[in-house]
Amino acid sequence: MYSARRAMAAAAAAAALAGISTTSSLPLKHGLSLLPASSVNSTSHYSSSFIRFRRNYAVSAFSNENREYVIVGGGNAAGYAARTLVEHGMADGRLCIVTKEPHAPYERPALTKGYLFPLDKKPARLPGFHTCVGSGGERQTPDWYKEKGIEMLYADPVVNIDIEKQTLTTDSGKLLKYGSLIIATGCTATRFPEKIGGNLPGVHYIRDVGDADSLISSLEKAQKVVVVGGGYIGMEVAAAAVGWKLDTTIIFPENHLLQRLFTPSLARRYEELYQQNGVKFLKGAFIKNLEAGSDGRVAAIKLEDGSTIEADTVIIGIGAKPAVNPFEKVGLNTNVGGIQVDGLFRTSIPGIFAIGDVAAFPLKMYDRIARVEHVDHARRSAQHCVKALVTAQTSTYDYLPYFYSRVFEYEGSPRKVWWQFFGDNVGETIEIGNFDPKIATFWIDSGKLKGVLLESGSPEEFQLLPQLARSQPVVDKSKLEKASSVEEALEIAQASLHV
Questions:
Q1: How do residues 452-477 score in pLDDT, each as one tens digit?
Q2: Where is each FAD/NAD(P)-binding domain found (predicted)?
Q3: Chain-centre distance of CA 272, in angstroms?
Q4: CB 330 within 8 A of CB 352
Q5: In sequence order, which residues have a C-beta less than 8 Å from that of residue 123 and are 6 or more positions away?
């Protein structure tokens, strides 16, 4: 098969040398493409009709036959980028994916939700949540990649890039050639330093399946669980620990849960729900160090105020940082972190792109640079980037911030919780509803509806949220405040769309 592809490439090269014109896209200095250069700020489009050719490189010189496109990463963004290349007929024999994980790309949100459920409550397992099943697409198992002619290099992270030669070096020493490179390396968990016990047995971080498997092994034997961090990870892991019927405590330095998004009033509702499920909270607490027991495993958490909390299992969920190594030389954004890209996810280096968590991109509707750690952005940025790369699409990415969480969804739970937020959490807030059965929070700035959060809404109500957040209608604040129910408040907001 490779010989046939090489013959076709040689024929294309001969045609190009004979004077046939080509449509331009990205440059490749070392012979995989005849393409002119463009800068990160260029508005020139990417076309799928260009003619590519290969020079007489020895096949053995590179570990990937598929040299035209290389994706680095094994998460959501990588899987959705692969699917989009397949949809455009650009993957078979042209795409290589290299990942540090031993698995094909999968839907990572499951790791802190269904994957952590007790074993008798039907926990999620691979291949059940390989991409792109999370958005209703075909499940992309390892066999799917084989069937689509995509070369997969597992458990071998990239450790170096040579921009001039357009090559990547992996940890095992493989040399990979790329024409267009898509960086989809995501994030790594922020860890406690080793000197304060951050690497003790029984201390867990969650970024991949291996991490989740290790945590489950601890939960099976645990009695006292402490979750450090009051954000998404902390809330979801604590809810899962409740399903195991474990003594669970959440510790965080802020005044309330999910301080970056929740208002104090909204956070109080969720905290009450967790407390009803037996979860204890320790707010405004700062950790000095983690202490080991006689067996070498974590046994307690010592706080700055001198107090000690017993724990045989500790989960650290204090945030993440973009996995930019070894791509720092591509160009970083020092304000939001990550690799700087434009509205088509092009970096400052022609032929190199960055998508998903690692990309610092222009958030068009709010006119600022942002880096979003969310599965929805991972999917959409991958699709937008690839379409710009292989078609004539020139429209810039116009993302509407979206966040959600689902907790207590295991069998036997007295109440399953699912909230969604769209937009920007700026301005003053109006809260409607009593949380049971539902609650809504509206963010209003200069009279305009900027963001909205809904807990336990109907499918139709959830579908309304992005319309409201993107349109940013002028709303009658006093009328909204007088709404007697969430349903009435949403009707008032919806009516403002037509004013």
A1: 999 999 999 999 999 999 999 999 99
A2: 68-381
A3: 29
A4: yes
A5: 114, 115, 116, 117
